[in-house]
Amino acid sequence: MEIRDALEIGSVVIASLGGGALLIFSMSNWLGRVWADRLMQAERAKHGAELEQLRAQLHAKTSNEIELVKRRLDIATTSHLREVQEKIAIYRSVVDLVSEILGDFDRTYLDGKVSPDAQERYDRFNRGRMKAYGYMAMLAPQTVMDSFDAVVDHLIMISNGSESYEWTKVRALAVAMINAIRQDIGLDKSPIEYRGKL
Predict the structure, then answer these.
(1) Surface-to-core class of residue 181, CB atoms within 10 Å of its CB (0-12 exposed, 13-18 middle, 19+ buried)
(2) Which DSSP category does 117 fall into?
(3) Domain membership of residue 105 as a residue range
(4) Are 121 and 115 in contact (CB under 8 A)?
(5) What dihedral angle (degrees, nearest 10) is formed by the CA atoms of 130, 155, 170, 135?
(6) What does the DSSP 8-state code read for residue 36?
(7) Sign of dihedral through CA atoms 87, 188, 152, 149?
(8) What number of CA atoms fall less than 13 Å from residue 28's CA on the CB side?
(9) Are 158 and 165 in contact, with CB atoms under 8 Å apart?
(10) I want to staple 97 with a disulfide (CB 3.0 to 4.6 A). Which of 60, 109, 128, 163 is the partner?
């Protein structure tokens, strides 16, 4: 009977506490959700603050890196523009130099005689071509140098009498040099050609 008495006592206790147990269970369930929500909110706030701090750090780092890249790009752009401007100035002086000596050769060819100051003019051309070669060698690619050499070598051979002056041959060499220059400068890389009648 002791087991039976114990069961009866247990069932009476459970029955009497049944409503209370249900109430305690409900309250503990509700209290657990409240605590879980508060803990979740605290965790969200903590993670939100950490995320915001990380976002701010990343933004600052990215802004600094973007600023550095912009500065480098500005320097590269400025350097490139300066180089192009220097090339254009050098190439213009080369065209002026070649044009001057070609004008002298044309005058000699048309007059049928060498002008009295031809030696002085040739000396000026010779000194100018050496300077031009040095300036071009600093910035020009080999294709431009080769085309310049072809024109100048031919002009030197004309001036020393080892080649005859033929306008079409000189013009072809000059146009080839101008096309090499155009290719290097890159403003318009398409080649030009002479389409006149002379």
Answers:
(1) buried
(2) T
(3) 85-185
(4) yes
(5) 0
(6) H
(7) positive
(8) 6
(9) yes
(10) 128
Position 50 in a domain: no
Which parts of the chain sit beneath pLDDT 50? none
Would you state the pLDDT for residue 25? Answer: 61
User: What pLDDT, in 10s, does the model give residues 25-59?
Assistant: 666 677 677 777 887 888 888 888 888 888 888 88
> What are the tokens at 16?
């009497």
* Structural domain includes residue 141: yes
The beta-carbon contacts of 99-108 under 8 Å, at least 24 apart in sequence, are 100/124, 100/125, 100/128, 101/125, 101/155, 101/159, 102/155, 102/170, 102/174, 105/155, 105/158, 105/159, 105/165, 105/170, 106/167, 108/165
Report the first-to-last Cα separation within the chain, whole angstroms. 139
Instruction: Tell me if 148 is assigned to some domain.
Output: yes
Q: Which residue has the tokens 């051979």?
A: 157
Q: Which residue has the tokens 């752009």?
A: 77
Residue 154 lies in a domain: yes
